[in-house]
Amino acid sequence: MSAKILDGREIALKLGAQIKKKVAQLKKQYGEPPRLASIFIGENPATKLYIASQQKVADGVGIEFQSCQFPNDISQKEVVERVDRLNRDSQVTGLILHFPLPDQINRSEILRHVNPLKDVDGLTPENAGQILLGRVRIGSCTAQAVMELIHATGVDLRGKEAVIVGHSELVGKPVGLMLLEHLATVTTCHIATNERGYLADHVKRAEVLVVAVGKPGLIQGDWIRPGAVVIDVGISRVNGRVVGDVEYEKAVQRAGYITPVPGGVGPLTVMMLMRNVVKAYKFQRTAED
Ligand code: NAD
After folding, report:
1. Distance from residue 235's CA to the centre of ligand 1 (Å)
2. Which of helix, strand or coil describes residue 233?
3. What domain count does the chain have?
4. What are the start-end ranges of the H helices in 231-264?
């Protein structure tokens, strides 16, 4: 048996066509396009690549793009001031802040300063909290991309054994809450699960497996439960190639559905960002929620 490949590029392309239409409608109705401000501090080649891809996708759907690079030695106070300026700028629809941040910058404090109506990465306390309450207002782009891919399989999540590896605020935690909302039985594994030697046991039970760690080959192919839905969020570079966390060649023989890396979660994450910008634009103009 060989798994069906969940092609994130194809799904992103379809969604992009819908978003482009919506952006054109909004532009006609309100006279100006949505604008995304993408903030990054210092120099990070992976972030630069991500930002270049945001710019390309934004151009494609008609969203204006503003790249905001701050110097690596910027102070906390200055970042807060610049974020406040973007919050107040009525031309800016959404802000995304890229990680990692330099040591002198306190991530939670900055996130508390982002206007939740402009928080298109869903990381402010307010937007993250909405997910706990069972409604995704503006949710984490990656978590939403994971859910889109799972829904694309048509698999009914009710009562399914869902195992997540990784418990970050950006991916593991919101995906866990979203799966719970669909009445999956959710287990979240992390570094300590592995330290105790239980990771394989949990993964082997998974009918839906989401892995977001950043360690190539962490999930061995023969741990995959036959027929499982496997979503590999991990991105690492090995010998110049981009790879995920799952041993793909073996896993593809056992899974029912699997995402490739690259070409799975990544392209859809960028499209979710555009969808969040459109949502934010509407919230700001109609106060609809
Ligand atoms: P993170 O560093 O915030 O969290 C990593 C998680 O992995 C933690 O829960 C940690 O406990 C767990 N972990 C670490 N080592 C482990 C091990 N040996 N066994 C089990 N668990 C272990 O990471 P993140 O921001 O959630 O990102 C995870 C990966 O996903 C990275 O490779 C990142 O590049 C990728 N990512 C991809 C996208 C995308 O769009 N495709 C978006 C965001 C992140």
Report:
1. 8
2. coil
3. 2
4. 248-254
Question: Do residues 62 and 146 both lie within one domain?
Answer: no
pLDDT over threshold 70, residue 287 = no
**CA-closest residue to ligand 1 atom 16:** 191
Please give the residue range of the domain that contains residue 189: 141-266
* DSSP codes of every residue in 252-270: HHH-SEE--SSSSHHHHHH
Q: Which atom of ligand 1 is nearest to the CA of 261?
A: 41
CATH code of the domain covering residue 209: 3.40.50.720
Chain segment 51-100, per-residue pLDDT in tens: 999 999 999 999 999 999 999 999 999 999 999 999 999 999 999 999 99
Q: Would residue 23 count as lying in a domain?
A: no
101 and 203 both lie in a single domain: no
Instruction: Give 48's contacts (C-beta < 8 A, 6+ positions apart).
Output: 40
Dist. CA 213 → ligand 1 center (Å): 3
Residue 266 CB less than 6 A away from ligand 1: yes
Same domain, 158 and 95: no
CATH of the domain at 83: 3.40.50.10860
Q: Is 262 in the pocket of ligand 1 (CB under 6 A)?
A: no
- Indicate whether 271 belongs to any domain: no
pTM of the entire structure?
0.97
Give the residue from 222, 252, 152, 241 showing the smallest Cα distance to 232. Answer: 252
Ligand 1 and 213: CB distance under 6 A: yes
Q: Give per-residue pLDDT as tens, 145-164.
A: 999 999 999 999 999 999 99
- How many Cβ atoms sit within 10 Å of the Cβ of residue 27? 15
Domain closes at, from 117, 150, 182: 117
Task: Assess whether pLDDT exceeds 80 at residue 1.
Answer: no
Ligand 1 atom closest to Cα of residue 99: 25
For ligand 1, the distance from its centroid to the CA atom of residue 108, given in whole angstroms, is 18
